[in-house]
Structure formats: structure tokens, C-alpha cells
Amino acid sequence: MVASGGELGWLTWPDEQGWEIAQQALNGSLLYNYFICNVGAGEQDNWLRTTFIQRHPTATRVFVEMRFVVRDCNSFGADSLTCKETFNLHTSEADADIGTSFRKGQFRKVATIAPDEISGVGDMQINTETRVVDNLSRKGFYLAFQDIGACVAIYSVRVYYKTCPATVKSLAAFPETVAGGENQALREVAGACVENAVSEDQPRIYCTVDGEWVVPVGQCQCRPGYEPKNDSCQECKPGFFKTSVSNEACEHCPKNTEPSSSGALSCPCLQGFYRAPNDPLTAACSAQMAVGKLQLSWSPPADTGGRTDITYNVVCDRCEGSVCQPCGEKVRYDPSNTDLKEISVIISELEPHLNYTFTVEARNGVSHLCIAKRSVALSNTKNLVNNKLVPEYRITDFTVKCSLQEKDEEKNKVTTYTVLVLEKNSVQIIDLSPSTVYLFKVQALSPEGNPGSYSMEQEFSTPAEEMFRFAQKSPPPIKSFIFLFSYSRKNSHTRQGPEDAYFSSPEQLKPLKTYVDPHTYEDPNTAVLKFASEIHPTHVSKQKVIGVGEFGEVYRGILKAPGRKEAAVAIKTLKPGYTEKQRQDFLSEASIMGQFCHQNIIRLEGVVTKFKHVMIVTEYMENGALDKYLRDHDGEMSSFQLVGMLRGIAAGMKYLSDMSYVHRDLAARNILVNSKLECKVSDFGLSRVLEDDPEGTYTTSGGKIPIRWTAPEAIAYRKFTSASDVWSFGIVMWEVMAFGERPYWDMSNHEVMKAINEAFRLPAPMDCPSAVYQLMLQCWLQDRSKRPRFQDIVSLLDKLLKSPDSLKAIADFDPRVSIRLPSTSGSDGSPFRSVSEWLESIKMSQYSENFSMAGIVSMEQVLQMKSEDIRNIGVRLPGHLKRIAYSILGLKDQTSTLSVFAV
Ligand code: AMP
């Protein structure tokens, strides 16, 4: 809205001596403005009201940008005593234009508008100020500018609201959405998958009051035949294909396929090429083996019986499964299959997919006395074998069946079976009898011991004992070697590796100073020099890696500075190959930490910056991160001890807030615990805003926010203040009282934000003193100005600790809600199948043996247990006792809903 001439029709009150339209020539063009300058004319109350401004139905918050000039009161000499240099902005809502009727009482004040720069005689400083008018609900509104005795000219007023622009994120399209206001800081918006994309759940996202999209939820994926490209799903190009719904790229058509057209779901096989029914569409097509032709060769028998009239007969059997029959006339032999003098034959007209067995008999003039046989099992199904007709399971073992065929009249009678189970693919079989025909079959076993089918039988004859007698003094044991199929081991996935405070509180030092953002130093190295002392690297020795930070490993070590006692320290290192920016970001943590001196803030010992291996050295905290410490000591600490820890953290945070430092990532994982169980706030960094926190979730503008620890206004419009740190402190209180339980359990970030927006809050942890839970709820007030300050928190916690009886009243605890952790059923919602599965789900596996020793082996028995019984089987810690008892309670009451949160 720009004032241009008198046609704006704004109303002035009182009419005569108040605001008026003025003209001013500037650079050749005329500028109009609303002007007033009743300086030195006594009390002033002059109003300028806009025309009725229609409100967009969903815009509850509008911005008013004013460009104006204010004259310096000093320039009015004697009149300057009553002269003002500000004016007021007011608003009044209405459902319809009320025309020229004007009543001051209908307006509410939005803000006092003061100029950044005042103008003297002859110079003109135009100021631009923007104010928010929030919580609008009626059809429209008026704005009014109240002069109380200043010399002001208003050049323009721009009224606007913010929107999140129509966008496509993760293949979901979201419409332009008007940003919410204080009452609805995050607007949930449903989207739709782009053309040719689908998703199981409707995609959603939040629009913040700043008109920024955050936390997209849901995954749209391109249909078969389409791949993601530039926020859309595009057809696979010719020669490419995609078989399934996914965001993978289209693949090249496999071998032996026809080039596909665009948008192909698969590529058809070239003529003469096929896929077996179980072949994936991504597999190459394969040809059937040409109708078979093969050359069969063999060695003459070692012992020809001293004769030369050896001839051979080739016998062919055709087998399907275990059924074999003679091959018949179809198969051709060149030159013949009988009376062969050569030791080879060409066999043709073999059919694909079939197993053939050829037996070669050697004969001589006295062959009725001895027949030496060699069997050759041939498979004509090579291609199919390649295409996985072999058993799909992994083969780890083989069985070898050995049957003994005695060379007597009852030739085919099998008399003995020996079964060997092997882990290798060869075996040596000893102690065979001479002059005996042995048949061997091999069968593969899967790791579970499931048998595959048998191979063809292989036949071996052992020579006569006499032969050995002649050759050697004593017959050696007869040996035979069998070579089994060797399969490469497939499917052998490697398993993926799997994630009091007795605040001996001396009067805390009051910070004398305000925290200085190292960014304000032009050269960040100056900041490090100013706030951290340089340590010579020979004075620090690393002992053991204790953690990994964003920039490199964290070590435990020793600091031995000249003239000082040896001290255990933590040494943060910067991994080699760092850039100057990384070095500066890394050291910014030291520049910040070095400014603090408090018992509950991790203490900086110094830095190594003048050598290649840059380090930050801090005091060593023996018990590591608080969240893990609590999980490892679940149920082992009293409320008094836990509240003591919280008091320490609150004291550290009070110190930080007194120094005007906003932490932004306060969470139990960023609190360190020493051997005296003192808790200290850690994790200060600059670039960090959470870059190094695995809990950080990217917002669409690229910032990262740990949603479940962060106050709604900080998520919505990055309003990070000590009050948002207080919200996070409330979450830390909950984490501590719940022994390191994950806030909001397995709810997604999206569900958490929705629940918080709808005024739900975390329920009281088990056994949590009522006063402590009340304090948490205070920390989670939507209106940040109503939250307690850290100094209030410290004094309240102090009070509780001074009269421990105040911790006796326990907050209502609803196992059906809170025992989502000790869950009421298995992860899939089905009842627990075993006592140990249930114990594992409530993280009480350490008692498995107690249960089984007491004969409690079924969930039916568990459900009958009373507190007494649980104690009697050896669960003594009160926390554990309760956890188990409550879980049983929850199991009995599975019908109750889990959606009740304390508000
Ligand atoms: P940070 O980079 O600060 O998040 O550190 C990574 C991990 O190193 C932490 O989670 C701790 O387990 C460990 N750590 C860091 N500083 C210390 C310290 N002063 N004393 C003991 N452990 C530490």
C-alpha cells in the first residue's frame, strides 16, 4: 500500500489538526506522505486509520512494514520538551467495513514504533520497521497510527502475510500454504505424489510461521517403467527398463533382449532366448543349449587281460528325476554304439533339459568273465543350471552314500550303505574291499541340514587283492577319492553389526561477562588465542579411543603440563586432511568452552593449534555420556540422586543463560558424567547447530534440528532462546527420570510434532516424583514467556533436595501409556511368544534365568505373578521390580488405548 495522492481514503481523527497528506519532490518525482508535526502544541492524540483490509481466510498473522521519517526533537529548540520521537501502531478487527465510524476504544496496541535514525533539519533518514499482528480471526482489520506529539512522515505501509510456496519434495507436491501464527506455529499440509509416483501413506509436511517447509514425511516412489528425475517421474528411455515401484534409476536391458521402448517394465527376450520361470526380469535371457552333440572319450582298461581284441559298447540311459530309461533309437552314435574299436564316440540328437548317463563296457574275447564299467553322468541342462535350477539354499555339507555291490550273481543287490557327512568337497574313503564294485551318490545339504537331490551314481571297482600282493609286501588299505560338486557359497550374508550428582554445590560463580560469539572475530584464530590456552603436544599423551565426534576421534589421555599435576583428560582430535574451514569450526568449540567456568560445564584445559595434529583438551568425564550411563544403570538410582543430577545440569544451564549463551542441543547425550556422578553440559560448537548430532533432522532450508528435544517455536521459526533451552531441559528431566528412555519412544518426528501441536505432552515416567513432573510440564508450556527460567528451576530443585519428603508424592503413572517401552506385546503387536522375548522387550533380560529357575516358562505363568512373586525370584531393585510389575499390568490390560498423554 503506497500513499500516492489523496485517493487512499484513510481516515484521520481528529479531522482538523491531525495527520495530513503532504507532497515532497524527490529526484524529480513527487512523493506523497502522511505527515504530522504538532510539536510544542501540548498533549497530542492524532489517529490515522487505514481503510478496511480484507484478511486471507487462513492468514492469522500479518506483517506490517512501515517506511517513515522522524524529526530529531533537538532541532525544535524550546519545543523539544514535549516533543516525541515515536508513534504507535494499533489494530482493530471487524467482520465488515465500518466506514467512517471510528472509536479509539476498538483498537488494540500492536507496538510503539521508534526510528533507528532520526532526521535533522535538511536531512532525511527513512526508517523501515516491520511489526507482526498476530492472532487475527475476523474477516478483516484496520491499522491505525497514533501520533502523540512527534514530527513524523509515513511514506509507505506494506501489509503482507507469509506463505510456504507450492513445492515438490521427495516426489510429493505440496500446495502453496499460508503460514500459521503463534497459535498454530506449524501447519500440517497433506501433499500428493507427482504423476507416476505412488506412496503407501499420504505424504505430509509442515509449514512454519516463517513460510518455510520442514520435516517432510512419506516416501513417494516412481511406478515401474519410470525413474525419478528433477522432482518428477520420467519414463525409462528406450533400451532401459524398471520392474518395480522404487526410486532407483531404470536399468539397461539385460543381454539377449530386444531393445525396449520407452517406459518399459521389462525387456522381452530375443527370439530363441528365454527366461526360466523363476528368473528375475533383470536377468539376461539365455538360449537353450543346442540340441546336444557331444564327444564321449574314455581310457582303455589298465588291465586288458593280455589281449588286444578289445571292443566297447556304449549304453545310454535317459533320466528325469530319479526315473531312468534306455535312450532308445533317437540318440545317434558316430560311428556306432556297439563293437567300437576306438576309445571315443560322437553322440548327437540329445535333448535339452535331460540328464543322460552313458555306460561304456569294455569287452574282449573272454569278457563273460570280467566287465569293467565306467559311468559318466552328463547333464544337458547347463544353461538351466546357470539359471538356478540348482537348489537355492546354501550348501555347507554333503552326504556321500556308498553302497557295496558284490560281484556275484545277484549283481544289483545292494548290501551295505555307509553315509558320510562332509564339510569339504572331497573325501578319501579307505578300507575298501578288493574286487568289489562300489556305487557312490552325493547329496548336498543346506545349512539347516535339508537334503537336496542325489547325484547320479558313480561306480568304482576295486582291483583284486592278488595284484597288490604281487606288487607290494603287504596290501595297503584301498583308497578311493571322490570329488564332489563344488558350489560357490552364496547367500552367505555377513550379519550386519548391530547403536549423586551430589552436586557438592559451592556457591556457583556468577558470570561477570556475556558470552562472545567467536564469529564476531574476523579471524577465528584470534578467538581461539583469546579464550583457550595453547598446550604443547608433548604434554599430552593419548591412551585410548573413547568416542567419535563430528571432526574425529575422542581419546582418553593424560595432560602433564610443566609445574602441574598429571590430569586425566579427554582429547578431541581433528581428522587429517581437514580444510581450514573445518579447522576453524572444530576450534570454535574451544573458543566457546574457554569462555565458561562453572562446575557443571565441561572445562577446557587447552588446545593444540600450532602443530599439525590439532586437538582440544578437556577435563575427563569417567562415566561418559549421561544417556548411556542411565541406560546402563537403569533402576539403580533413587529419585533423590536423579534430581541431584538434574540440579547440576540446571545450574550449568543457568550459568550459560546468564551469559546469554543459547545451547540449542541440550539433551542427555550431550551431558557428561564424571566419577563423582557430577553432570556437566558439553557439546558447544558453532557450525554445529547440530551438524554433528545424529538426532538432528534436516529442515528443508538445510538446518538441522533434534525435533524431540526442541521447543515448537524453535522448530517453527528458529526462535532459539534460553526459553527454548528450558523446553529441552524438560526433555532431559524426562530422560533422566526414565533412565535414558528415548523421548516419545518410537514415535516418528512427525508424530511428535503433531502431538505437541495438539497440546499433548510426554506422560510421567515411572516412579517420577509429582513435583518433578509438574516442573517438566512447566518447561513444556507452549507460551515460552510462561516457562520457568533456569534460575527458577535451580531453586525449585534445590528446595526439593533440601526436603526429600517432597519427592515422595509420585506422579500418576499410566502403564498403558508409559509402558509402551515395556511393551504390551511384541513389536508386531502379537503377544509375546516366550518369557525371554517379553523380558527383552522391557529391557530386563538379565532376569531371564531367575524366571526359568523359578519354573516360570510361559507367559500364562507370568500373567499370574504378583509383586511378591517377582521379588521372590530375585528381582530386588525397586525400579526393576516396578518395571516388571507394570509391564505385567499392561499385558493384562491390552484393550486400553495407548493414546492418552498427560496434558
Ligand atoms: P562429542 O564430539 O563431544 O559429541 O564427543 C563424542 C563422544 O566422546 C561423547 O559422546 C563421549 O562419549 C566422549 N567424550 C567426549 N568428551 C568427553 C570427556 N570430556 N570425557 C569423557 N568422554 C568424552
TrEMBL record:
<dbReference type="InterPro" id="IPR050449">
    <property type="entry name" value="Ephrin_rcpt_TKs"/>
</dbReference>
<keyword id="KW-1133">Transmembrane helix</keyword>
<dbReference type="Pfam" id="PF07714">
    <property type="entry name" value="PK_Tyr_Ser-Thr"/>
</dbReference>
<keyword id="KW-0067">ATP-binding</keyword>
<feature type="active site" description="Proton acceptor">
    <location>
        <position position="665"/>
    </location>
</feature>
<dbReference type="InterPro" id="IPR027936">
    <property type="entry name" value="Eph_TM"/>
</dbReference>
<feature type="disulfide bond">
    <location>
        <begin position="73"/>
        <end position="83"/>
    </location>
</feature>
<dbReference type="InterPro" id="IPR013761">
    <property type="entry name" value="SAM/pointed_sf"/>
</dbReference>
<keyword id="KW-0812">Transmembrane</keyword>
<dbReference type="GO" id="GO:0005886">
    <property type="term" value="C:plasma membrane"/>
</dbReference>
<dbReference type="GO" id="GO:0007411">
    <property type="term" value="P:axon guidance"/>
</dbReference>
<dbReference type="InterPro" id="IPR002049">
    <property type="entry name" value="LE_dom"/>
</dbReference>
<feature type="binding site">
    <location>
        <begin position="546"/>
        <end position="554"/>
    </location>
    <ligand>
        <name>ATP</name>
    </ligand>
</feature>
<keyword id="KW-0675">Receptor</keyword>
<keyword id="KW-0037">Angiogenesis</keyword>
<dbReference type="InterPro" id="IPR000719">
    <property type="entry name" value="Prot_kinase_dom"/>
</dbReference>
<dbReference type="InterPro" id="IPR016257">
    <property type="entry name" value="Tyr_kinase_ephrin_rcpt"/>
</dbReference>
<keyword id="KW-1003">Cell membrane</keyword>
<feature type="disulfide bond">
    <location>
        <begin position="37"/>
        <end position="151"/>
    </location>
</feature>
<protein>
    <recommendedName>
        <fullName>receptor protein-tyrosine kinase</fullName>
        <ecNumber>2.7.10.1</ecNumber>
    </recommendedName>
</protein>
<feature type="binding site">
    <location>
        <position position="572"/>
    </location>
    <ligand>
        <name>ATP</name>
    </ligand>
</feature>
<keyword id="KW-0832">Ubl conjugation</keyword>
<dbReference type="InterPro" id="IPR001245">
    <property type="entry name" value="Ser-Thr/Tyr_kinase_cat_dom"/>
</dbReference>
<keyword id="KW-0547">Nucleotide-binding</keyword>
<dbReference type="InterPro" id="IPR020635">
    <property type="entry name" value="Tyr_kinase_cat_dom"/>
</dbReference>
<keyword id="KW-1015">Disulfide bond</keyword>
<dbReference type="GO" id="GO:0030425">
    <property type="term" value="C:dendrite"/>
</dbReference>
<feature type="domain" description="SAM">
    <location>
        <begin position="830"/>
        <end position="894"/>
    </location>
</feature>
<dbReference type="InterPro" id="IPR013783">
    <property type="entry name" value="Ig-like_fold"/>
</dbReference>
<dbReference type="InterPro" id="IPR008266">
    <property type="entry name" value="Tyr_kinase_AS"/>
</dbReference>
<keyword id="KW-0472">Membrane</keyword>
<dbReference type="InterPro" id="IPR009030">
    <property type="entry name" value="Growth_fac_rcpt_cys_sf"/>
</dbReference>
<dbReference type="Pfam" id="PF00536">
    <property type="entry name" value="SAM_1"/>
</dbReference>
<keyword id="KW-0829">Tyrosine-protein kinase</keyword>
<dbReference type="InterPro" id="IPR017441">
    <property type="entry name" value="Protein_kinase_ATP_BS"/>
</dbReference>
<dbReference type="InterPro" id="IPR003961">
    <property type="entry name" value="FN3_dom"/>
</dbReference>
<dbReference type="Pfam" id="PF00041">
    <property type="entry name" value="fn3"/>
</dbReference>
<keyword id="KW-0418">Kinase</keyword>
<dbReference type="Pfam" id="PF01404">
    <property type="entry name" value="Ephrin_lbd"/>
</dbReference>
<dbReference type="InterPro" id="IPR001426">
    <property type="entry name" value="Tyr_kinase_rcpt_V_CS"/>
</dbReference>
<keyword id="KW-0677">Repeat</keyword>
<dbReference type="InterPro" id="IPR001090">
    <property type="entry name" value="Ephrin_rcpt_lig-bd_dom"/>
</dbReference>
